[in-house]
Fold:
Amino acid sequence: MSLFEFFRQKQIKITPETQVAVRYLTAANVADLYDMATGDLLLVKRRITAEDAQRLKTYSGKCAVFTSQPETLEELDAQENLESSVEIHRIQSIGLDYLHFGETLLAFGGFPAEGKVAAVPNTVCISPVHRQDVEMQLSINMGVISQVLSLDSVPAQPIPAQAEAEVAGDGTIEQKAPSKADLVRTALKEAFEKQFAVVRAELEGVSFENNTISLSEFYQKHGIAKGRLKGSWRLFEKETLSKIMDEGIVGKARDAVFRKYSASIPGYGRIVRVKDIEAFRSELDKIASDFRRYLDGDKDCTSIGGIPISKPFSPQEAISDSMYALLEYLIEICPVKGLETEKYIQDAKHFVDKTYRKLGQFSDKIHMRMTESSYRDNQWKDREFIDSVWKAVTINHRFFGDDFVSLMERYSNLLYAELKE
Structure:
């Protein structure tokens, strides 16, 4: 008789002498079912949870447990925890969870979220059902069950020590179960993506040594081959910057924010806790805003991102000197002689004047750009990447937190163990 018939009818005759009673129960959680059990217990459950392990380890009677290969780290930990006191048998396919004790069979499904009440019954209680009847009715590995229960009537089928990719009865390929390293890696990646984001944050326009003027247009107009000539004109020389501004103040403010909110993965960028992303972005935006005010000569701006300003921005004299030097340079490389020289000089003056007018406000060039991403799945299989993350963890344990560090250490140890095999 099939399980479908158990569900379809309230009472079923298994033999002429035996009536089977079926009750529909509403359980809040699996603990409600364990509380009903007495004597020897048989559990067939596709997913073993930490709650299952805790209850079964303290169960007073003998337990036999059948389950599937773990698919998550939580399931792996629960099974390994339970194995210290209860023998677990892993089988390839379990279609229904059930609990058998005495002459009672409980077939059950999902449970409501904590604090919620199931709207419909989620457990079927069938009795009397003998252990041998359970053997005949439920579609599981019959040979394995018979071995555990010392039933010789059913031919034994061995359990694979480790699940491999096998051909199922319908000809399809059943995939190999994930290894312990696979499960820990998946949990590690999920924990990382839940807690951290890979960020690329840049304050654009703050490097004044990069303020240059292209000379290509002027060269082309006057038929000047570049050769060894300057391709562009640097507006401020390096030694000039320290005289006209508080050089490096933006870098100091930015680095302070980086130290406060982020950690560097050597060779793989910078990460920020997800919960700190908005604060991180806000403080970098403030640095950009403060620096724009500083460049505009706002006397009320006394600091950049909390770093006190030691020198006001005074670029005018340096700009004038730079423009005069540019004009001298263009005249020096004049390619013509005689009457055409005067026209060339006038063109050079016009070019310099136009360039000066186009300089505009330096503050207009200041922007903060930030992007968020995550690491690719295959990077978590890369030994070099894992070593780099581990290096960051050892340097900044507190940033990552104990739970992530514990997972990281566990995964790293598994990878090294694989290398030794």
